[in-house]
């Protein structure tokens, strides 16, 4: 496994920081557009999607800060980032990353359950009211964030800020930093607490949600098939199409979370019962996949919602890019037309050349 550790170390040093920067910025901008657009089409389902986008936005922003902190402290070796207060902000950032990650996963699980009951109500020909209301929306958010807070309390104590004689990596590269007191983030000195939090995090945010999402996927597909069989009884065919389009988007989001979270949870469990430590070697890669998932969710919103696509196109940067492209095309077309006219004139002149003996043909 030494080769994997070397590749992972090189990836974390060279590729990971700029890639995370691109994903964080693009994901943050995308979710801001989604939140602004969905806010103009407020209903209980869109309100829930806004809450999920807020969780993904917080995830991107937090990853951006933690990546910047690691780069400034480990690569640039700025002594300012070795202070207690800056290290404490990193401690808070680590806890926040766990909380917003769990909040995002719990949103997807709740979204699958909500969609199933909404489809069940839709399949009832005697029902004309939507099942998911603003009251159920508030109850769902309360359950999600209370659960995240309860699970996140012990996770906060997994790591702690400790004082060391020097930052070994920076002191090795910069002799001036030798014997300079620094603060670092380390795992807690209580091994049982580490084991408890490790299992708590991987079970509650990866394995159990993935199993629930797998079950809900089959249940939603069965319910969707039932609705298609009863589609002729609907009073509004357009409503049926809208429900199916939204349901397909939710199913894709569920599937993405399953293929991302379940392997990570299984690898984490394997690391505790065997000597296979892939989850440690793939730490930076897992972070990148998590951020990529956040960007994919925004892309799905764009594919399934024309208003979000229109709002994204109306962003100032894209409007400027569109104007610049049009001006460049006009300039190139103008040069092409001028060149074609000159070519036509040359061909015409060549055809009208007098080839009599009175003139020399060059």
Automatic annotation (TrEMBL):
Domain G-protein coupled receptors family 1 profile: 27-301
UniProt-recorded name of the protein: G_PROTEIN_RECEP_F1_2 domain-containing protein
Molecular function as annotated in GO: G protein-coupled peptide receptor activity
Keyword Membrane (UniProt): yes
GO CC entries: plasma membrane
Subcellular location: Membrane
Main location: membrane
Transmembrane segments: 20-40, 47-72, 92-117, 137-157, 198-222, 249-273, 285-304
A Pfam family reported for this protein in Swiss-Prot or TrEMBL: 7TM_GPCR_Srw
InterPro entries reported for this sequence: 7TM_GPCR_serpentine_rcpt_Srw (IPR019427), GPCR_Dmsr-1 (IPR053219), GPCR_Rhodpsn (IPR000276), GPCR_Rhodpsn_7TM (IPR017452)
This protein's UniProt keywords: Membrane, Transmembrane, Transmembrane helix
Keyword Cell inner membrane: no
